[in-house]
Structures are given as C-alpha cells and as structure tokens.
Amino acid sequence: MIYEFLMLSITLLAGVSLAAVTGIRQLPLLIPAGVLFAVVLRTASFSLLNLFDVLSINITVWFLLTLLMIVYAVIRGKLFIQLKALALIVPIVLVSVVITRVERWSSPVYGDPSWILTMSEMMQSGVDMETLNGRVSIKRGFAFPLMLSLGPTGEYLSAFPAVLFISLIFASYWAITRFTSRHNLALLLALAVMLTTPIVIRSSLYLNGHVLMALAVVIGLAVGLEAANEKTLSSQRLILLMVSLSVISTTRAEGIAVAALVALTVISANWISRKQIMLTVSSATFSFGIWLSVYNSYILNSTGIYWVLFVLILVGLGLLVAAKPLDPIRFRLIPLAIIAELVVLVAALVIFREDLLGGVQAQFENLVLGEGLWGIVIIAMPILLGYLYFQKDQKRLASMVFILMLGNVILKMVDGGQFGEPTLGRVGWADSLNRMWLHLTGVFAMVIAISFSSKPKINS
C-alpha cells in the first residue's frame, strides 16, 4: 500500500511537472494532462530500453526518470504549480489506494483482464517482448499494462485504474467548462448522468484500457474543438493534442484509427499550418509503429520489413494528408468521413446481414433494453446530436461525436464481427462494443452539458 501510494504520487507529479512546463496551469486540466504525459513518458522510456535490450532495469530507470522530470520542472520555475498540484495528487492517490482495497473486484473470470495482468507481469520482469507478438496481446494494448507493471514486485499497480477514473472526472469537468458560458447547472446534470450510469461506475476499477482511452479522447477532442473555435493551434494545445493522440494510439488495437478520427477536428481546417498537421499525425503513427516494433508484432513480421523502415513508412504515409494537392479533400474530411462511414456500415449490414444479425440483436438488447447497463445515455445521443447539429455554431461538435460513434461500430465490426471472432453477438457487460462506448464517456458528458447550456461557445 505504501509502495503504491509513493509510486503513483511520484508518477503523477512527474507527469504534472511536464504538463506544467508546457504552460498548463489550470488544476482541472493539469491532473488529467499529467496522467497522459506520464503514460507517454513510460511508453517512450520502456521502448528505448527495449531497443538496447536492458528491460530488466525498466522499473529502476522509471523511478530515476520521474525524479529527473520533477527536478527539471523546479529548475524551470514551476515549483509553486507543482506544490499546488501535489496538494491534489496526494488525496487523489490516497483515495484511489483505499477504494481499490475496500472495493477490490474478484479475480477476472475471462480473458481480457487475465491477459493484461500476465502482460503487465512480463513487462515488470523485463522478459523478451517478442513473446507478445500474437493477436491476443495486440488487442490488449501497450500503455495500460505498461502502467500497471509499475506495481510492487510480482504485483500490479492496482490503484491506477481508480486514479484514471478520477482523472476522467476532472478532464470532463474541464472540457465542459471550456465550451459552456453558463455551465453550473449543465455541468452538474452531465456529471450526474454519467456518474449514475451503472457501466461507467463499473469501469472505474476494471482492468482494461477503456478509461485511459476515454481520458485521452475527451482531452484530445476538447483541445481540437477549442483550437477550431479560435482558429489557432497554440504550441501548448499542439503538444497536449499530440500527447493525447499518442496515448490513444498505444492503448487499444483500434486506437490508431480512433486517433485519426479525433485528429480530423484540426487537420481538416484551412487555417492550420502544414508543420502542425505533420506533427499531429506523426504523434499517432510514430507511437503506433514503435508499439508494434517493441512487441515484434505479427503485423510487422508479415511485411518482412525491418522495424525502422516499417516505422518510417507508416509515418510517411500519414504525412500525405499534409500534401498541398490534397487540400481540397482535406478541407472536406469531416463530411467525407461521415459519408464513408455510413456507406461502409450500410453495405456491411446488407452484404453480411446473416453474420451480423446476432450482433445487431445484442446491441438492441444492450442499448435499448438496458442489458448493457447504459441506461438511456447511448440512445439519447443521436437525439442530442441532432439537436446540436441544427443549433448555431455547433455542427463541428455534433459531427465529430457522430463520427466517433459510427467509428466505434465499424471498428468493432471489423475486429470482432465479420473479419474476426464474433464478439458483437454478446449481451451485457461482456460485449466488446458495449464496453467500447466507454471510450466516449467524457465526450458524452460534454454533449449532455452543451445541449442543456443556454450559451454554448463552440463554433462550426
């Protein structure tokens, strides 16, 4: 318990220190942003150690690296912000450690958490990462088990999921207050709805990357919308967006596609510079490529390409979106994405209707009949998005959330439906798509708050 408290406190403080150096000062954003910075620092340092085949010292290096980041921020004159953040970090970590022990879940009874804990143990002990090159390991992600591996020897960092959940609440609060002028009642309503939704509460201690994805998605989307609102992407926003996209692309197998959708918010704009486009896209493609290289993934191996060249090709392909001849398409990426997603979804339902029928029936039971523990949140979203779309200056928000929702369905259909194991057919908590909606928890809170706010602040 003491080890977890100290490790989580130091880890969060290191992340917050890096966030403070970039210019972030507001505590509601500083804490969740600090979590994302810590995750990127952990994945980067672990990947570098893997390159030199010295993973056995990865925990020791992490401890030294976090102390270095804290000292670096002090030297940069961020001591006062660090002390303010620490006053919040200590109770957050303490509550997380205590709750985890009071409300500890029973041992996982099916694959996902068991795989994640096994992977975390392997990462902690520094074994050869080539043992994780299978399909199941890739689906469990990189960033989340890597953070869990910071626990005591032979154990995982059990309070980390609770820290993530509390950070998500902070991030949702920050996002809502950025986009509503009179936000008090709307804010309380949105948070009350989300925090009384059974599946959201259940996710708070669940051993999977859903809440980490939700944290990165809501911050990434909010930063993008704020930049679109003001038609400028400052250095601080750019760095935070890049960190968010990096976390998204290394947390789940479908993360690279989700990162691409989130990035549409800014890369489709006509005011963004080509350098900013390239940095934004590369933050996701480079992180994803490094993850596959560390795992020595079957995806990488199937190409027969040396990992360095593979990463360079992946990054290079992503940079094509910044090419000037493609500007007419880039400026229309948001409506084109909606059209493409609808065409793919309808075509799949028609062509593979027999294969996907079970999945459609399961989603009806999950989202309409309540078996998925979502209450009315998911079925209310199309109504609220339709309302927002036809309100002045809110089309971009409504369009982006709609794109992310359609993307969820298509990504899981490809991964777990027609082209993989038929996981879409499950009813209840065990259904993968049902849990993937958790990635949009903070975004749903934003939609609810803005829908009931009298003076929204989002431009189209």
What attributes characterize this protein structure?
23 helices, mainly alpha, 0% strand, single chain, globular, 460 residues
Count of alpha/pi helices: 23
Q: What is the count of structural domains? A: 1
Could you list the spans in which at least 5 consecutive residues all have pLDDT below 50?
105-109
Mean pLDDT across all residues, rounded?
88
Global morphology: globular
* Biggest beta sheet summary: none
Instruction: Please tell me how large the radius of gyration is.
Output: 21 Å
| Intertermini distance | 48 Å
Task: Give me the secondary-structure category.
Answer: mainly alpha
Strand content: under 5%
Helical percent range?
over 70%
Instruction: Compute the number of strand runs.
Output: 0
Give the H and E element order: HHHHHHHHHHHHHHHHHHHHHHH
Summarize the structure.
With 460 residues, this protein is mainly alpha-helical. It has helices at residues 2-21, 27-51, 58-75, 79-102, 111-125, 135-140, 143-148, 160-179, 184-195, 198-202, 210-230, 235-251, 255-267, 274-295, 298-303, 307-319, 327-330, 333-351, 353-367, 377-389, 395-417, 432-436, 441-451. Helix 20 packs antiparallel against helix 21.
Describe the structure.
With 460 residues, the chain is mainly alpha-helical. The chain has one domain (2-327). Helices cover 72% and strands 0% of the residues. The chain contains 23 helices and no strands. The chain is globular and about 55 Å long.
